[in-house]
Design brief:
Chain B: It is found in: Mitochondrion. The complex is a heterodimer of chains A (about 400) and B (about 375). Chain A is an alpha/beta fold. Chain A has 15 helices and eleven strands. In chain A, the strands form four sheets. Chain A has a five-stranded parallel beta sheet. Helices cover about 45% and strands about 10% of the residues of chain B. In chain B, strand 6 (about 280) and strand 7 (about 285) form a beta hairpin. The longest helix of chain B has 27 residues, at about 140-165. Chain B is extended and about 85 Å long. Classes of the chains: A alpha/beta (about 400), B alpha+beta (about 375). The interface of A and B includes residues 317, 375 and 381 of A.
């Protein structure tokens, strides 16, 4: 009887001891659980924020672009929807995809004493060509290249409010507004180089104004932004200078020319002269000089371009191949080039994009978080990045 | 109205007689018709006459004419007059008198007079003008005789129950009538059966007493009587055409189906591959249907059955506009899916309305109006 009572008294103490033991063990388990919880967050994110160090292992993962870089490098380069997304999520995450990685690997391995290589991103509408272009441009920027980024060549051939006959050549036309805005953005991007590069030729603008040899490039750009009338010629001068100088061994910079919607340069334009006849893109100063730049007769740089059907004029909606969009003239001028096809998301890429949106609480609808919802999204968007983004926009 | 006119003529006749007698003419005046009659009195009061009454002889004559006509029709079509059924008659009439009218009831038809002429009550009294039925003076003789019969059946059942109780075989829940999928006749149907108008109150009372009869044990002896007033519901899943499941050379099961909506026609080949690819007329679905609504329509059958990523779709579609093409494709996909599903899932799809072809077609423009429904602008002056 006494033993029974003793065991009764002992039992709670034993239990007490056991509970202490379990609580410590439980805390260990909790700690392990926390560790394992923090891991799934980074399945679709990668810590490698430098494009140079990214490899195939990071395909499908998101890397963060530093905010400084965005402000400097892409004042006008990113797609509109992506800019809104950056503002909403307070961070700029870009997915590492195979076409961009391929372009970057070629850029790394290329021999810069040979003529510049031309890369062309092509694909169906909304498959991520502009984003791949921006990714490659980011790589060039981190490597310290001079970046000449034309966000959309289509803007130069349509909706022109002011068209002036060129002062340099009477048969050509100037577009002062577009030229000045582009020069401003160019200045923001390439601030450090503007003082280093010196021009090798004397440019005369008017009877009283001229830029002497040896002056820094920044002065030329300022001339263009302040004197709107001659801004297109300034653009032409800038392009010429950069082209001539970047091949020389004494200049220690490389030039990256990035053009989005390159098929605009060889297509038709909607700008009309006073007598209602259409203007050929060749007759526009900006386009003419850009075409000269795109010819691979200079060394020490790379030309990265994309095709775009969205802004193009007089092309069918289903056209996305280089031959169709560039036309004969364009294809002949761009040939030879390295074509890089940009497909829709693969399953892994789609999965990681879906997880990213879920983590950012962008997909609010409860159905969208289920397996069924995911299948519906795959069906409706057909794994096209733009369509998926638009769909999730109202979910 | 004819009575009134007779009266009028009679009056006229009477007046003439007196006048003539006053005039002291020798010869008797002839009953002459009034030459001028008010045209308003000639017009019959159609509303007061009630529905047109057909006599029994008239109906009989119509039946004979119908039978003779049937034989003639069989001879025209070159078929056997003896075994000429109603379906054959319909077919022949549709062939001989083709009609493009949309309203089926407006097309030419040839049916037995019993189906065309409404049932009418024969004269309820004999030559001595005494009624045949003992309940004639109630006004609703068929209804009351039915209730009387019903009560008689209930007494019958109670007598049966007493007999069983006396034998000791009575049990509370014995032998009820199995109703199956049926419902009571509606008031209109009951009126058609009794060839007499009944009020809602009478109808409710009737149904009440029938329910009471059904609740009594051992009512199966009057099953035949009760079933006369029950209407069998149509079988649920009507005959569905399920396309066969075929296998192609790689052993992959596939099925094909067609669908149409408005003026679009589509064919779909559904393959059981395991990837959710979709191609329309050789193009990507995003290119062909840029609008989200159309792609949602295509997604609906597969989302409903939960087979989204399982099948590969190859679609061809032509005609119509973007919405009707999407609708046609949706119908074709649902029909093709049928062969991969179990009967319960097929029933679910049918009830969801995925298998019903949409009958809405563009309505024609009518003369005197600007469109199908829109009238011309009404100007007051």
């Amino acid at each position: 009887m006494a033993l029974h009572r003793l065991s009764l008294r002992l039992r709670p103490t034993v239990a007490h001891v056991r509970s202490i033991h379990t609580s410590r063990y439980g805390r260990q388990q909790e700690a392990a659980a926390v560790d394992s919880e923090s891991e799934p967050i980074s399945v679709f994110r990668t810590q490698e924020n430098d494009p140079a160090s990214q490899s195939e292992k990071q395909i499908g993962q998101f890397y963060t672009l530093p905010a400084e870089h965005i402000r400097l490098l892409f004042p006008h380069g990113l797609p509109n929807r992506y800019q809104q997304q950056v503002k909403t999520f307070n961070e700029a995450c870009m997915m590492v995809r195979q076409p961009a990685l391929e372009a970057i690997s070629y850029l790394k391995k290329a021999d810069y004493s040979k003529p510049a290589l031309r890369y062309l991103f092509y694909g169906v509408k909304g498959s991520g060509k502009t984003m791949s272009l921006c990714h490659s441009v980011h790589f060039c920027y981190t490597q310290g290249w001079v970046v000449l980024h034309i966000p959309d060549a289509h803007l130069w051939v349509k909706n022109c409010k002011e068209l002036m006959p060129s002062s340099y050549k009477s048969s050509r036309f100037d577009q002062p507004l577009q030229a000045t805005s582009w020069l401003r953005n160019f200045k923001i991007t390439n601030e450090p180089f503007l003082s280093k590069i010196k021009i090798k030729q004397r440019y005369v603008w008017t009877k009283r104004e001229s830029t002497e040899e040896g002056r820094p490039l920044g002065e030329l750009v300022d001339q263009g932004t302040s004197r709107v009338k001659s801004s297109s010629d300034v653009v032409a001068a800038v392009m010429k200078e950069l082209r001539l100088q970047c091949g020389h061994p004494e200049s220690n910079f490389r030039l990256a020319v990035a053009v989005d919607g390159v098929n605009a340069l060889w297509g038709k334009s909607t700008i009309k002269k006073e007598d209602k006849s259409a203007v050929d893109p060749e007759e526009l100063t900006l386009v003419y000089n850009l075409r000269k730049l795109l010819k691979n007769d200079w060394i020490g740089g790379a030309i990265i371009t994309t095709l775009s059907q969205t802004g193009s004029l007089y092309t069918p909606k289903s056209a996305y191949l280089p031959q169709e969009l560039l036309g004969e003239r364009g294809f002949d001028s761009m040939d030879p080039f390295i074509p890089l096809s940009v497909p829709n998301y693969s399953e892994k890429e789609f999965e990681s994009c879906y997880l990213y949106y879920t983590e950012r609480n962008w997909l609010q609808h409860p159905q969208s978080r289920t397996e069924e919802g995911k299948k519906e999204l795959i069906f409706l968007s057909n794994r096209n990045p733009t369509m998926f983004d638009r769909l999730c926009g109202f979910l | 109205m004819s009575g009134y006119s007779l009266c009028f003529t009679a009056v006229v006749v009477f007046k003439r007689k007196t006048w003539l007698s006053l005039g002291q003419l020798a010869f008797p005046c002839v009953l002459c018709r009034s030459i001028s009659q008010n045209s308003a009195l000639c017009r019959k009061n159609l509303a007061a006459a009630g529905p047109e009454k057909f006599t029994a002889e008239f109906i009989q004559k119509q039946i004979e004419e119908f039978n003779i006509g049937k034989r003639h029709l069989a001879n025209i079509m070159g078929e056997d007059p003896e075994n000429f059924s109603q379906e054959d008659i319909d077919r022949s009439i549709a062939y001989l008198f083709p009609s493009g009218l949309f309203e089926k009831k407006a097309r030419p038809l040839m049916k037995h007079p019993d189906e065309i002429f409404p049932m009418q009550r024969a004269v309820q009294w004999g030559k001595d003008r005494r009624p045949f039925h003992f309940l004639f003076y109630t006004g609703k003789q068929s209804y009351y005789s039915l209730m009387h019969e019903l009560y008689g059946k209930m007494l019958n059942i109670e007598k049966h129950q007493d007999r069983l109780r006396s034998k000791g075989l009575f049990s509370k829940d014995g032998h009820k009538i199995s109703l199956g999928m049926s419902r009571w006749l509606t008031k209109e149907e009951l009126e058609a059966l009794l060839v007499e108008n009944i009020s809602t109150h009478d109808y409710n009372r009737f149904i009440q007493i029938m329910e009471r009869l059904l609740s009594m044990p051992y009512c199966n002896i009057e099953e035949e009587f009760v079933l006369r007033f029950r209407h069998l519901l149509q079988t649920q899943s009507r005959h569905q055409m399920v396309s066969a499941l075929q296998k192609d050379e790689n052993g992959v099961a596939f099925s094909s189906a067609e669908g149409c909506r408005k003026t679009s026609h589509s064919t779909v080949v559904l393959r059981d591959c395991g990837s959710g690819r979709l191609s329309v007329n050789g193009q990507d679905s995003l290119l062909y249907f840029p609008v989200l609504q159309d792609r949602e329509q295509l997604m609906f059958p597969m989302q409903f059955t939960g087979t989204l990523g399982r099948f590969d779709l190859e679609c061809t579609v032509s005609g119509g506009g973007r919405s009707s093409q999407a609708g046609a494709l949706r119908l074709a996909i649902s029909r093709a899916l049928l062969s991969f599903l179990s009967p319960s899932e097929r029933e679910m799809m049918r009830q969801a309305g995925l298998l019903t072809p949409d009958p809405r077609v563009r309505e024609r423009k009518k003369p005197g109006q600007e469109g199908a429904r829109r009238k011309f602008t009404w100007k007051k002056r």
